[in-house]
Amino acid sequence: MTSCYYKNKLRVGLVLIFLVIGFFLCVGETSAQNIKGRPEAVKEKDTKLLDSLNKVAADSVKLAHKGALTQIIEYSSTDSLIYDFGETDTLVLMYKEAKVISEEEGLQIDADFFQMNRRTLMFFATGMPDSVGNIVGKPVFKEGGGEYKMDTLTYNYNTKRARILNVITKDGEGYLHGAITKRTPDGSSFIKDGKYTTCDLEHPHFYLKMTRGKVVEGAQRKVVFGPSYMVIEDVPFPLMLPFGFFPQMSDRSSGIKFPTFGEEVLRGFFLENLGIYFAMGEYMDLEFTGSIYSLGSWSARAASRYTKRYKYDGGFNLEYNFNVTGEKGSTDYRESKTFKIQWNHRQSPKARPGTNFSASVNFSSVSADKFNNQHDPYQSINNTASSSISYSKTWEGSPFNFSANFNHSQNMSDSTYAITFPNFTFSVSRIYPFKPKESVGKKKMWEDISLTYSTSFDNKINFKSSEVGTPDFMKKMNNGMRHSFGISLPSFTLFKYINLSPSVSYGMNWFFKTKKKYWDAVDNEVKEDIGAAFSDFGVTQEYSFSASMDTRLYGLVQFKKGSAIQAIRHVLKPSIGISYTPNMRTHANGWRRFQSGVSVYDVQEYNIYEGQANSAPSSSEAGAISFSLGNTLEMKVRDRKDTTAKGGYKKISILDNLNISASYNLLADSMNLSNINISGSTNILGKLGLTFGASIDPYAINDRGIRINKFYWADKGGLNIGELKSFNFSFGYSFSGGKADIGGNNQDPNMNIENNLSGVGNANMSDNRNVMSHEDHILPVFSDPFVYQDFNVPWALTFSYSYQYSKSWSYLNNTLKANKNHIQTLNFNGTLSPSRNWKINFSSGFDFKMKKLTTTRIKLSRDLHCFNFWFEWVPIGFMQSWSFHIAITSSMLEDMLKYDKRSSPWDN
Fold it and tell me: Among residues 129, 157, 153, which one has the least CA distance to residue 141?
């Protein structure tokens, strides 16, 4: 039942008419007498019903007042909507989730209490107390894509002026608080007692206190402020600014990069990463930075990133370092110049289907990473670097493929470089030349004949950095071209269960230089003359034949119905292969003889193409039979997680693989059998992965440690099938436990401004972060010191262990000695979160030979809501050091409001 209230000064008949009209105007509204905490309404006055007010809906009202308004305003509320008709003014009062919308002005106001003067179009909005006295439903003002939360709002719709108390505005990555704010018609605002912060709490952990300020709207929006000072945890700091401004850039902009200050014992005081940033258009940027040290070292760096959506992305990095250690004139004084070139490029798969281009280049001088990665111990001790640039093309609907590559690798320990450029490969996928496009009748045997082809050109060079520029440097270049043809003959099935697969392969190599060996009578030694690159041309050929047979044998053990173990299955995979390669030791294939000594009878044989990119043909005939036996073991057990009446079963693997293999040389005159190799792997409880392997020599040795043509078991007797030459074993396991989220998610969402400003995102904040208020951080510590000591904390530990054993024999001083080599490694790392915001990471290992811990790294980090803090310590190992860092979380201020302190590992 809804009623509207009018002051009864008119005649009874007129009152009845107004009551009837009021009933239709206010139908569907809730009685206003039952609302608690409602602001006092203005005093009722005599008034006349406006002719323009011709329709009022229950949930939405459209107002068009000819004298005051030319646009349409829609307003509604979920509790009640009351009209107070006075002699000169008509007030509209709305309670609970009031909403006022002007689509033409792009304006919306939400509040739990709203008052509107229909004649003057003055708006007033505020919140309302709930059952316990807390003010809820505070006004939210939305206009032109901006959103503002406040305590009270007084707004003139005609002049667009407003007076706001305690407004919070999201300004890019920051938040602007204003105790008293006046808004001008152009959208600008004057602020008194303001705060600027990147903390999203109503009571922020830190802020820049502004005595007065102005938000200037326009193409380049900015916040200009007068005298201000920094406040952290409500404590004013003597960091004063007479004036300043915060520009709000809608696009990337160029600017100065703030440096890092500090000190090292080895290089002195430093100013690191001072530079300038250029935003070069929509797809690219460029950055120049440099570092300088008081003892003479300096570095320069240029970096660029580029990206184009759905096309490609990547970046460049060029560095040059001049490092000085020690004092000039002292024995420990050293100067070094290093450089580094890095480039990475990735093409989107959608850019050009069938074509791909990628690059990962990391080329540097030998000692470049010594200083550049001094705070990453694992990178600093890395002795290798590699690069790769590749282009590939696949023609759709055809078997043709093409690729081009550049590869580079270097060893930092001995300054050895290996470069392959260019490398071209063209291949034809498997085709069936005798298979008709449309099969008719029974399949013919020759239809299964398939062909493959590939050709590649390689140009390789291996050198040391000191050899660059020497006269014979280009002679180190090796190049060649290889053609490979593969012919797969039809497969057969013997005795229904044995698969027979024969194949033939043919290869041709092209060489572009030769080597000549000769006896030098003057120096009394063998010398060789290597031709220059592309100084000659030669062709070698080789071919081979192979066939393989394999099958599968199944063993199954079933248990009675209802038992915990239902069945165990064992699968055997035996296979036998035979291969034959003829003797290609011919003059056409490059084999030559030369006098290798003073006597004419001292003759040796060599290949003029040996040592080049592709290997020379074999000088001997080869034929072998290879055999292997694979094993898998599985078990079907009851699934305890299946709670259905019938119950369920699941399959688990006991032994993923156990393979035994060997080969027999058909053409050798003795000791035809190769070593017996055993390898296997399994997984226990789905977490513990084990791998193992062994190599067994089936032949015995004599009293000098030389293998003889006698089987080990015949020499030793018993079950000794052979001598264990090597063995390896490794496993890894991961432990974890504790709750996924310490403390739960019980915070009031109203305490988080970010949640209230729906639709306004912050790329630097986690979407699922549980944000606590300022009081939530502080008060529990004083009321209960053990409030955070939850021993059921999230933790994880991963470790891996490997063991390698090898054995060899040596005969020295008429004594046969067994050389047994044992290598063990143990590595482990883990994380521990004693509370929601604390996290500990650690990694280390154990050197069994030295009987001590390897490089150990411990990192303690804390999420301080709007700050982040970490302390990293390397107490053991090559790179002993520590570093401390605390900075604003926001990327906008992280380069300015931060503190870094660290030691250098090179100071030890």
Answer: 153
- What's the CA gap between 752 and 626, in Å, rounded? 70
* 741 DSSP assignment: S
CA-based nearest residue to 450, from 499, 505, 498, 496 = 505
Q: Give dist(CA 831, CA 843) in Å, integer.
A: 9
Nearest to 218 by CA among 191, 195, 248: 248
Q: Which two tokens stand for residue 454?
A: 């590939």
Rounded distance between C-alpha atoms, residue 824 and residue 438, angstroms? 61
Joined tokens for residue 305? 């990133």
**Cα–Cα distance measured from residue 632 to residue 574, given in angstroms and rounded to the nearest whole number:** 12
761-775: average pLDDT: 36
Cβ proximity of 457 and 423 under 8 Å = yes
Q: Which residues contact 824 (CB under 8 A, 6 or more apart)?
A: 801, 802, 803, 804, 848, 849
Joined together, the tokens standing for residue 789 give 């000591």
Nearest to 732 by CA among 693, 683, 796, 679: 683
**Identity at 772, one-letter amino acid code:** M
- 858/872 Cα distance (integer angstroms): 6
Q: Taking the CA of residue 515 as centre, how many other CA atoms within 13 Å lie in the half-sphere pointing to its CB?
A: 19
Distance in angstroms (rounded) separating the CA atoms of residues 5 and 147: 36
Q: CB of 452 within 8 A of CB of 486?
A: yes
Peptide bond into 436 cis (omega under 30): no
Non-local (6+) Cβ contacts of 293 within 8 A are 264, 267, 268, 269, 270, 324
SS3 371: helix
pLDDT higher than threshold 50 for residue 202: yes
Contact (Cβ atoms closer than 8 angstroms) between residue 263 and residue 248 = no
Report the DSSP beta bridge partners of residue 171: 174
Six-digit token string for 697 = 């020599």
Average pLDDT, the chain: 80
Contact 756, 750 (CB under 8 A): yes
The pTM score is 0.62
- Exposed (0-12), middle (13-18) or buried (19+): which is 881, by Cβ within 10 Å? buried
C-alpha span between 373 and 693 (Å, rounded): 37
Note the pLDDT of residue 834.
86
CB neighbour list of residue 395: distance below 8 Å, 6 or more residues apart: 354, 401
Give SS3 for 536: coil
In angstroms, what CA-CA distances link 592 with 110, 478, 516, 540, 619? 95, 20, 9, 14, 11
Measured at the alpha carbon of residue 25, what is the angle toward residues 20 and 28, in degrees to the nearest 5?
A: 105
